[in-house]
Specification:
heterodimer, A: 266 residues, alpha/beta, Rossmann fold, 9-stranded mixed sheet, B: 332 residues, 2 domains, 7-stranded parallel sheet, 18 strands, 27% strand, elongated, binds flavin-adenine dinucleotide, binds adenosine monophosphate
């Protein structure tokens, strides 16, 4: 089974909310000092989904990351978890893209890789939370897609997927090749082993520039966008919390009930 | 080149009824259509639509397109995208709105890529720019830490809308409108996916999305036993139990109880967050609640920035006393 996993490097989404700052003049997010970026968490789980298939029936996993000035320690993490190869689409013209230009470049890189049975993406990147690139790649490649998967099993040349819906899940079967997007209900991604980290350190990623995947600079990155960001801002939280004072937490709990009664909330 | 006209809502139905979110989309679509002086169109797709088309008119639509076919019994990407591609090309609406649901978040991007347009996903607000007449979608980004306003010039302009972000109109039985069935040829050979079964994991009692009181527990609850105490409180308040992501990831509670960016969106009168730190991703799912109450041992926890009342302390001590007092007050 030849598998490709698309992994994005993002600002750590679990950094303390207070550390999140934007620059309104340029409509960009400021990198908080001392908080290194990470592989987008759903993408790590997409790697995990691929590894589970590799564990059970073998196969090769190629990781694809698009960006610029990518931190090697970050983007190599999937290798240390057990992925086989890393391809970086790394160039300044890849920067500032939207779902369109990103999906297009990734799809063209996947065409260049050529052999694939399954492509995995995260359900959404933890920065812009759009959830479009996976479906976009599948549409450009003309292959079926199943989104928001919590379980992926390969059986007899087909893939069986549990797709999360509001009140449960659906079991869906799809023929190969196919693209699957993965959600956290899949379960935690495995830790990198020491052996994996050492092996990953030795591996050199393959780096592709726009010409290597046969795309024009006008089609990718900021130039290839089909949506325009007008404004980025932080919503104001004006909430004022009244802390219930008491000698013990139990007393505070009882006082809270009285407070809610007085405020006609219960 | 066709002229793009009208605001279209992609409606969802369950058992022949419009979903709540569909009525919200119609409410929002009506406002946008009026601003643009255009018609509000609705499209419904399924095996059997029952009373839903008429009900879409009652909730504001001028014209309802229906596509009924046994092959459309269940949502599948290939068949639904095919239907919508054909419908959009024939009808050429200027704007297409979908709900941010299991269907909408799958259908919208795939359809958009087929049509060559860019959708704004998970919008909280939609407005028409008075000068350009283009649709501006405001959506949460960075896990809810920020909001972004997007615009796209390619037509149709597409957006998905978050649950409970918009209000439905008052249903008006006297509203008149047209229902227009359309036929789309579907080739079963082109549907590459097959739905084997649908598994419901619904919990008993009041549905989380509909509850007026939600008692939600976080990682600090420590295990499934603690959630029994939350259930007791929820029962007394005639509400429902919810959770942040860690209790779901750890299987203390079913995944369907997750509240947040990638879970359920709730907007109850009363939201009691117990041992939840208040990450932006969690708040995305509950910040629309009228009153947030927090119990947390960490006075610095972010949840207190959103809460109206708070108790700083160990929930294991605070909650039983709170529950007992609530019970007493409600009895008396
Ligand atoms: C892309 C993405 C999407 C996500 N989507 C969601 C989502 O939809 N929903 C969601 O909830 N999360 C989501 N998350 C996870 C989110 O970032 C947080 O990790 C999560 O919400 C934290 O849950 P928590 O508050 O229960 O746990 P923690 O942050 O660990 O907080 C536990 C809290 O419990 C308190 N506590 C501990 N013990 C006690 C005690 N005995 N008494 C009182 N208080 C105590 C602590 O002080 C602490 O504040 C997402 C993350 C990512 C990256
Ligand atoms: N720059 C990128 N590099 C690699 N994969 C990406 C990139 N952007 C998006 N993806 C993939 O597409 C998924 C959905 O992204 P999005 O549509 O931006 O939310 C992510 O979870 C990744 O799997």
């Amino acid at each position: 089974m030849n598998m490709i996993v698309c992994c994005k490097q993002v600002l750590d989404p679990e950094a303390p909310p207070a550390s999140f700052k934007i620059d309104p003049a340029s409509n960009t997010v400021l990198q908080p000092p001392g908080v290194p970026p990470v592989v987008s968490p759903f993408d790590e789980q997409a790697v995990e989904a691929a590894l589970r298939i590799k564990d059970s029936q073998g196969g090769k996993i190629t990781v694809l990351t698009l960006g610029n000035n990518l931190l090697r320690d970050v983007v190599k993490k999937p290798l240390s978890m057990g992925a086989d190869e890393l391809v970086l689409l790394e160039d300044e013209v890849f920067e500032g893209g939207d779902s369109w230009s990103t999906a297009y470049a990734l799809a063209m890189a996947i065409k260049k890789i050529g052999e694939f049975d399954l492509i995995f993406c995260g359900r959404q990147a933890a920065d812009w939370d759009a959830g479009q690139v996976g479906s976009g790649i599948a549409e450009i490649l003309g292959i079926p897609s199943i989104t928001v998967a919590k379980k992926v099993e390969a059986i007899d040349g087909k893939v069986r997927v549990e797709r999360v819906i509001a009140d449960g899940y659906q079991v869906v079967e799809v023929t190969l090749p196919a693209l699957i997007t993965v959600t956290n209900e899949l379960g935690e991604a495995r830790y990198a082993t020491l052996k994996g980290i050492m092996a990953a350190a030795k591996k050199q990623p393959t780096i592709w520039k726009p010409v290597d995947i046969g795309v024009e600079p006008s089609q990718i990155g900021a130039a290839g966008r089909r949506s325009k960001l007008l404004k980025l801002f932080q919503p104001v939280r004006e909430g004022k919390c009244e802390i219930i004072e008491a000698d013990t937490p139990a007393e505070a709990g009882a006082n809270l009930a009285v407070k809610l009664r007085d405020a006609k909330l219960i | 080149m066709a002229e793009f006209k009208g605001v279209m809502v992609y409606g969802e139905t369950t058992e022949g009824k419009l979903t709540a979110l569909t009525t919200e989309l119609l409410g929002c679509g009506r406002r946008l259509a009026d601003e643009l002086k255009e018609d509000l169109l609705c499209i419904l797709v399924g095996e059997q639509l029952g009373e839903a088309p008429q009900s879409a008119i009652v909730y504001g639509a001028d014209k309802v397109y229906t596509v009924e076919d046994p092959l459309l019994k269940e949502y599948q990407t290939d068949s639904y995208v095919t239907v919508m591609e054909k419908a959009i090309k024939d009808i050429s609406p200027q704007i297409l709105l979908l709900g941010q649901t299991a269907i909408g978040r799958d259908l919208a991007p795939r359809l958009a890529f087929r049509l060559g347009v860019s959708p704004s996903m998970d919008c909280l607000e939609l407005n028409i720019d008075p000068d350009t007449k283009l649709l501006q979608g405001t959506r949460p980004v960075y896990g809810g830490n920020a909001r972004a306003i997007f615009v796209s010039e390619s037509l149709p302009q597409m957006a998905t809308v978050r649950q409970k972000a918009m209000s439905p109109l008052e249903p008006d039985e006297s509203r008149k409108g047209e229902i227009a069935p359309i036929k789309v040829e579907l080739d079963p050979a082109k549907i590459k996916t097959k739905v084997i079964e649908t598994v419901k994991e619904e919990v008993e009692g009041i549905k989380l999305e509909d509850a007026e009181a939600v008692v939600a527990g976080g990682r600090g609850i420590g295990g499934p036993e603690g959630f029994k105490e939350l259930e007791e409180l929820a029962k007394i308040l005639k509400g429902a139990v919810g959770a942040s992501r860690p209790p779901c990831d750890n299987s203390w509670v079913p995944d369907t109880l997750q509240i947040g960016l990638t879970g359920k969106i709730v907007t109850p009168e009363l939201y009691i967050a117990v041992a939840i730190s208040g990450s932006s991703q969690h708040l995305s799912g509950c910040s629309g609640s009228k009153n947030i109450i927090a119990i947390n041992k960490d006075a610095e926890a972010n949840i207190f920035k959103e809460a109206r009342f708070g108790v700083v302390g160990d929930w294991k001590q605070a909650l039983p006393a709170f529950t007992a007092k609530v019970k007493e007050l409600l009895a008396g």
